[in-house]
Write a structure and sequence with these properties.
Number of helices: 13
Number of strands: 8
Structural class: alpha/beta
Helix content: 40-55%
Length: 340
């Protein structure tokens, strides 16, 4: 019994001292994973819903070839149409090329973009499928140039370390390769954050805990690190809990309203990100406050379902409401109360 209490005490202490931010990626990854191209005005409505739900970080666009990704062809128009909705929101865009980076820098100069995501993977087939050079050294050199240019242009720079836990095409990914490249990217000029990505839902909780524990040996644990989680095989929330129990003290968690998203059709089996509403509901139940209203996220998810006719992947969207009664009885004190 005492051993069990010690374990609970340890979990409570770790979670109670871990800061968690939520970034919704549904505007980008969710919308691009469906054949329907959502009109700009309807995208703005979805963005408004996320803001009203309390989301402070939104991955809204990709700066990509419009012929390959028509869903993101209106990136500049969307950013330009947000108006006061963008106040107090960190808006990010994904860049795959130096040409895309130049577009992102122009948006920053106009005051319409805050953060840019660059993409690295140790898997050549994945990079080739996304139109990126499969030459690892050439890709790292490109990321280094682009990160420096984007930072000089006033953008915060984060880098995806994609397929960190395995590939649906090539299978096993050596963790040492992930660790070595993560450290190398972290040390590049302009890079402020790493995004450790389970790009196709290959990970399990033990593997995740091992990876973040090893990363904590080579990266500063007091600097924010992002976990980008896919839920292709249903392990997404368990993987997040495993990551939170690693030594890192500050996480950003990527999730998508409705559980939409994935890099499909570019990466096989990459169906669905962890649903934002399900993630927030779990975190609040454990005592980790996020400032996000899960019921309002469900409202956004259902709005998109009405627009697209597409089924949702979230569990909370099928429930009557979030579990308010649990808040006073949770194990871990909220971060905001602990800091008071």
């Amino acid at each position: 019994m005492r051993q069990t209490m010690n374990m609970l005490d340890q979990i409570a202490a770790k979670l109670g001292n871990t800061r968690v931010d939520i970034r919704d990626v549904g505007m980008r990854e969710g919308l691009q994973s469906h054949t329907m191209v959502v009109p700009t005005d309807q995208k703005i409505g979805l963005f408004r819903g996320l803001v009203e739900a309390g989301v402070k970080e939104i991955n809204a666009v990709s700066f990509v070839n419009a012929q390959k990704m028509p869903h993101m062809a209106d990136a500049e128009a969307l950013l330009g149409g947000l108006g006061s909705l963008r106040d107090g929101i960190d808006i990010s865009g994904v860049v795959f090329s130096e040409g895309g980076a130049r577009r992102a820098i122009k948006m920053r100069e106009a005051g319409l973009l805050d953060t840019v995501f660059l993409v690295f993977s140790p898997i050549a087939s994945s990079m080739a499928a996304n139109g990126i050079t499969p030459d690892m050294e050439a890709l790292l050199a490109q990321i280094e140039r682009t990160a420096a240019a984007a930072a000089e242009g006033g953008l915060k720079v984060s880098v995806f370390v994609s397929e960190s836990f395995g590939s649906p095409v090539e299978g096993w990914v050596d963790p040492e390769l992930v660790l070595r490249n993560a450290q190398r990217i972290w040390n590049m000029q302009g890079v402020k954050e790493l995004i450790i990505s389970d790009s196709s839902g290959q990970a399990d909780p033990v593997q995740v805990l091992a990876m973040f524990t090893d990363l904590a040996k080579i990266l500063p644990i007091d600097q924010r690190i992002t976990f980008h989680v896919h839920d292709s095989r249903g392990a997404g929330l368990a993987n997040i809990l495993a990551a939170l129990n690693s030594p890192f003290q500050h996480f950003c968690l990527d999730a998508s309203f409705g559980g939409l998203g994935g890099d499909y059709p570019f990466v096989p089996d990459a169906f669905g990100n962890v649903a934002t509403e399900d993630l927030v509901e779990m975190l609040h139940g454990m005592g980790i406050e996020t400032g996000v209203d899960p019921d309002k996220i469900v409202k956004v998810s259902k709005e998109y379902a009405a627009i697209s006719g597409r089924p949702l992947g979230s569990r909370l969207s099928g429930c009557s409401r979030s579990i308010d009664w649990k808040r006073p009885h949770r194990l871990v004190n909220p971060i905001i109360e602990a800091a008071a």
